[in-house]
Design goal:
The chain is α+β, with helices and mostly antiparallel strands. Helices cover about 20% and strands about 45% of the residues.
Length: about 180
């Protein structure tokens, strides 16, 4: 077992931008691994970081969104979320997305940490937040491609209905935070 090579970063010997526009930033790398093997092309997506927010209203009901998701071709139930603009703090992005998608402001926002979105072939992180005491203060301010219905859901039951992995992870992190808070 001691003779096993340890994982190590690949050496990128060439990188080529395949496409970069408002929807996707994709490059193809030529890499050499620790055993000297060439891996080419290895495609890497370079999206902006993302935020996901489990928002609770003043009655501790979850604010969920019903929205069409073209990649999967489904109308699904999800959480508030979106991209972090260049130079923007993830906390500010979470509050901005909450206001844009729901028209709500939060009395409190709690940073639940971040995770890699998909570390196999993406460079971005997903930042998870819990927003409490949310109340509607404005109309939605949606992007041109968004059509979102805002709903309130039972917090405990919501997790079983979320089908997007990082939305579910945000719900799990928020539930762990709330349970720990109640226990102390």
């Amino acid at each position: 077992m001691n003779d096993v090579l340890r994982p190590s970063p690949w050496q990128v010997v060439h990188s080529e931008r395949i496409v970069a526009d408002r929807w996707i930033d994709l490059r193809a790398d030529t890499c050499i691994d620790a055993q000297g093997r060439t891996i080419s092309p290895y495609y890497v997506l370079e999206p902006a970081d993302w935020v996901t927010v489990l928002a609770l209203d003043e009655n501790d009901r979850a604010i969920a969104l019903e929205e069409y998701r073209h990649g999967a071709g489904v109308v699904g139930l999800g959480l508030v979320g979106g991209a972090v603009d260049e130079g923007e703090d993830p906390r500010d992005a979470a509050l901005r997305e909450l206001r844009e998608e729901t028209g709500c402001m939060a009395a409190e926002i709690i940073d639940l940490g971040s995770t890699w979105a998909n570390w196999g072939n993406q460079t971005n992180r997903s930042h998870h937040f819990l927003a409490r005491g949310c109340r509607r203060v404005a109309d939605q301010s949606l992007d041109d491609t968004e059509m979102i219905v805002v709903r309130t859901e039972d917090l405990e039951d919501l997790g079983a209905r979320l089908e997007q992995s990082y939305h579910l992870l945000t719900w799990l992190k928020a539930m762990n935070h709330l349970r720990a808070e109640r226990a102390s």
